[in-house]
Amino acid sequence: MNYNIYLAGEIHSDWRNELRHAISNIQGVSFTFTAPEENHEKSDSIGEVILGEQPNALYRDIQASKINNLRTQLFLNKADLVVAYFGEEFKQWNTASDASFAVASGKPLILIRPEKLHHPLKELSERANVTVATIEAAAKVLHYTFG
């Protein structure tokens, strides 16, 4: 059986590959992974790439956001499961948005966040199906679920 997993979260670390590797040995199941655009410059400039130069930075962001939101919505709608990773280094508004979309859409959600982010993410954490502190713990949940 094949499952679609959307990997929401910051794009500045290798966490997606860590998780993919950690669950690559689950037998009898396959996974298709989708994620936000991981090339930051490509994501920020896609509106101008498609629609041409915008009059200012505000419109540049608006056009890029529309296209990125379309892409994200399509992938999230097809997801069987969403894994949302909150690292410690970056403000992660997009991760919170994607995780909230998953909850509102009835998509199962695993939230990964370090203990120090417990308080700012407490409401979202309580809406997730499972909240863990590490990628390793999320992989264990996936092994239990699909193994």
Order of helices and strands: EHEHHEHEHEH
Radius of gyration of CA atoms, rounded to a whole number: 16 Å
Helix content: 40-55%
Q: Major beta sheet, specifics?
A: 5 strands, parallel
**Coarse shape:** globular
Put simply, the count of helices is: 6
| pLDDT averaged over residues | 96
Structural class: alpha/beta
The count of strands amounts to 5
Contiguous uncertain segments of 5+ residues: none
Percent in strands: 15-25%
State the end-to-end distance: 12 Å
Order of neighbouring strands in the sheet with most strands: 2-1-3-4-5
What secondary-structure arrangement, pairings included, does this model have?
Layout (H helix, E strand, L loop, with lengths): L1 E8 L5 H8 L7 E5 L5 H12 L5 H22 L2 E5 L7 H12 L4 E4 L9 H6 L2 E3 L2 H12 L1
Parallel strand pairs: 1-2, 1-3, 3-4, 4-5
Helix pairs in contact: 1-6, 2-3
What does this structure look like?
The chain has 147 residues and is of the alpha/beta class. Helix content is 49%, strand content 17%. The protein contains 6 helices and 5 strands, in the order E-H-E-H-H-E-H-E-H-E-H. The chain has helices spanning 15-22, 40-51, 57-78, 93-104, 122-127, 135-146; strands spanning 2-9, 30-34, 81-85, 109-112, 130-132. Strands 2-1-3-4-5 form a 5-stranded parallel β-sheet, sandwiched between helices. Helix 4 (93-104) links the parallel strand 3 (81-85) and strand 4. Helix 1 (15-22) packs parallel to helix 6 and helix 2 packs across helix 3. The longest helix has 22 residues, at 57-78. The protein is globular and about 50 Å long.
